[in-house]
Amino acid sequence: MLTERFGKFHNYAAGRKARKICMKIIDAHLHFCPGYGHFDELAREAGHENTEEHLRKVYEENGIVCGIVMGNRGMSAGEHVYPDMFRYCIGVDRSYLGSHTIEESYGLIEENLKRDACVGIKLYPGYNRTYISDPVYEPVYELAKTYRKPVAVHMGQTAGSHAYLKYSHPLTLDEAAVRHPDVRFVMCHFGNPWLMDAAAVVEKNENVTADLSGLLVAKTDFSALLNRQRGYLDALKTWIAYCEDYGKFMFGTDWPLANYGEYIELVKWLIPEEEWEQVFYRTAAQVYGLDGIV
Ligand SMILES: [Zn+2]
Fold this sequence. Notes:
Layout: H1 9-17, E1 25-30, H2 37-45, H3 52-62, E2 64-70, E3 86-92, H4 94-99, H5 102-113, E4 118-123, H6 125-128, H7 138-147, E5 151-154, H8 172-179, E6 185-188, H9 195-204, E7 208-211, H10 222-228, H11 230-242, E8 249-250, H12 260-270, H13 276-287
Parallel strand pairs: 1-2, 2-3, 3-4, 4-5, 5-6, 6-7, 7-8
Bound molecules: zinc ion.
């Protein structure tokens, strides 16, 4: 993740601001917890407010037609009621699975998957210290297959130091993807910073798509970042391009961690213009079953 190191974005962006965004955008990865102090703070640091009203305005200004909330609250469907511009993935927490019966846990996941608003499942292997190829997840994959909804997996760097990175390394997704060819996996954060390994897994497996969320944190300045982190950003662009298929990538932010305007500019820098519609809208619409709906 890149924090304040993202430096002079505004100068870089100034010349491009004139170009009004007219394409539809789906934010394929955000967190929405209004009223949670920590999230309020993160939103402020990113130049936002952690409220529905504020986000509605931002979505309208930027052509964002839908956001996919990555659930990290409880698992009962009643805890996942969101404003109409959102859909959500039900977050499955290994510690919850460990302290409840399988029937309780999987019944709750299924209750969510039956709803149109629930468009997938989210797993957190690094935080839960469990490989995603662990047998405990097998029934989760069965449910994903039955309901034809994707499994998004946090891959790459973790927030805080309590997680074990070996469980969130993108290479671990390879085994789960091979063993479950009928399940669509989303590699969140493109496995950042293991970009080469992430690209190998995305390019090899037809059933793996990546979201580009979590690459910026807080309000940033892109042109200064380009000066300081040019090698990193070129590597990111290189390994995305290496996959030879922009249909494998989708725009996502990890809001409230990042600023929407700045994130859109970053992804525009990473992706060739002729592929913007694919990455900003089409891939997420297809993977999360929103084509023709949003
Ligand atoms: Zn996230």
